[in-house]
Design goal:
alpha/beta, 8-stranded parallel barrel, 3-stranded mixed beta sheet, binds 5-hydroxymethyl-3,4-dihydroxypiperidine
Length: 475
């Protein structure tokens, strides 16, 4: 082992993230303001760990002042959350703003400014209004793209003079992949056509919102937050390498390329055609995507994804699914986070950074989410009741080091944001795996308490230096 110290650049973001539906709770929510997540929870509560879900979450909507003080104590430079589309409007068609909910954002923005922490806002973190899912099939409909743009317009009118760093989506691929491709989540439908239509409409909505923001002349930037899975082939054999390229094409480049380069990869379009995936994109829509690429991307990077060439032939009668081109592969001896079942490999950050340099012209980006969810964290409390999450400190240090190393190598990496600021509700896993710098104690009225990692994060910010033990070759 040897110790290495790296200095954080002055302009480097050291922040944390969350989302509206995972923290706010339903306090003040009006009938008809359910989001997709709320509807799923109401339909299928039994799949949510111990019955917890978005209903109370961390009650951030009532406790944000206390939480912003804790952000300050933990040394955050930036905090990212979302605005809940389902709650920001009382009428999705006319764009009537819910003054009560909007007023809460006015107060949150003011409080963050008072504490000197920059707020980044995302317009959609899965919070599609449930009513638009029922009425129009959600993002399958071009009407919903229009209604989303109207919602964005209302949000910008209200806050764009106070908040200058905007994001259209968080992980736009996730909902339709879980619902329509893999049928793992309510309403459990399998349709690759619908999956691709949702992908396209979210790419279109991104371009429309970027266009709107620029046309109105607002100060600031609009980006989007993607979750590319850094994909490694099992071996250097051409069939395994091909499997990794295919995975990358269907799950990563389907959003990265339109957002940054303004176009779908030609190979993806050819494969969708070959497999008769039915989705609709007009020439005007493709031109709009080409003309309105984002200003920056946030990248959510958690684990390496490994694949191998498929070992079984595809059944002709099974409808097309991208997995006909790959199979998942588990690396023997890998380091694991057993709570989440994700491999731990900090090198993914550096590898993604090099890819951004090589394939995307060193486009500006930052780590928008990275973190470690751990089950039953109470077992790590010391005699004073503070969670001693040394494993999280090690996890953050390892990944942050790779981001800083990449930056020294010329990567355009603007910062690192942890998922999450406090423990919060995950889809289905609810409060099972704890991600926060701050503990939410469910047995004691959701009392907040800084974990050891929150103090460490603060010292990182104060010193501006990361010191880490690096593995040397055994002598
Ligand atoms: O909780 C989620 C978040 O909503 C999106 N990114 C991954 C997190 C942890 O699973």
């Amino acid at each position: 082992m040897s110790k290495v110290t790296v200095t954080l650049p002055d302009d480097f973001i050291l922040g944390a993230a969350a989302s509206a539906w995972q923290t706010e709770g339903w306090s003040g929510k009006k009938p008809g303001q359910d989001s997709y997540l709320d509807a799923w929870y109401q339909h299928d509560r039994h799949v949510w760990h111990k019955g917890y879900g978005p209903a109370v979450a961390t009650d951030f909507i009532n406790r944000f002042a206390e939480d912003v003080a804790l952000m300050k104590a933990a040394g955050l430079t930036h905090y990212r959350t979302s605005i809940n589309w389902a709650r920001f409007l009382t009428d999705y068609e006319s764009g009537a703003v819910d003054e009560e909910y909007a007023g809460y954002y006015d107060r949150l923005i003011a409080e963050m400014a008072r504490q000197g922490i920059e707020l980044m806002l995302c317009l959609e973190h899965y919070e599609l209004p449930a009513r638009l899912l029922e009425q129009y099939g959600g993002w399958a409909s071009k009407k919903v793209v229009e209604l989303f743009t109207l919602y964005a317009e209302r949000v910008f009118e209200r806050y764009a003079h106070k908040v200058t760093r905007w994001f259209v989506f968080n992980e736009p691929i996730v909902v339709q992949t879980r619902v329509y491709l893999d049928a793992l989540r309510w309403p459990y439908q399998q349709s690759t056509d619908t999956w691709m239509q949702w992908n396209h409409h979210k790419n279109l909505a991104t371009a429309k919102v970027v266009k709107l923001f620029r046309e109105k002349g607002y100060r600031g930037t609009v980006g989007t937050i993607l979750n590319p899975e850094v994909t490694y082939p099992r071996s250097t054999a051409p069939h395994d390498v091909r499997a990794a390229q295919m995975y990358d094409l269907f799950y990563n480049r389907v959003f990265l390329d339109p957002a940054i380069r303004g176009e779908y990869p030609a190979e993806l379009l050819a494969l969708l055609k070959k497999h008769q995936v039915r989705w609709q994109a007009t020439d005007d829509e493709l031109a709009l995507i080409a003309a309105h690429t984002v200003d920056e991307v946030g990248l959510n990077l958690y684990y390496p994804h490994r694949v191998k060439a498929p070992s079984h032939a595809w059944h002709a009668e099974t409808p097309f699914h991208p997995s006909c081109y790959y199979q998942h592969f588990d690396l023997p001896g890998r380091r694991m986070n057993p709570s989440r079942g994700w491999e731990i490999q900090p090198q993914i950050i550096y590898d993604m950074a090099m890819r951004m340099m090589r394939d995307y012209g060193n486009f500006p980006w930052f780590v928008a989410e990275n973190g470690m969810g751990v089950e039953d964290e109470a077992r790590f409390k010391n005699a004073d009741g503070q969670i001693q999450d040394d494993y999280r400190i090690e996890f953050i240090a390892g990944h942050l080091y790779q981001a800083l190393r990449a930056r020294l190598a010329g990567a355009n990496c603007k910062g690192y944001m942890l998922w999450a600021f406090t423990d919060n509700v995950s889809p289905m896993n609810a409060f099972k795996n704890r991600y926060g710098l701050i503990e939410i104690d469910l047995d004691n009225q959701r009392r907040r308490r800084m974990k050891k990692s929150a103090h460490w994060y603060r010292s990182l910010r104060d010193s501006g230096q990361l010191t880490i033990d690096i593995d040397d070759e055994p002598k």
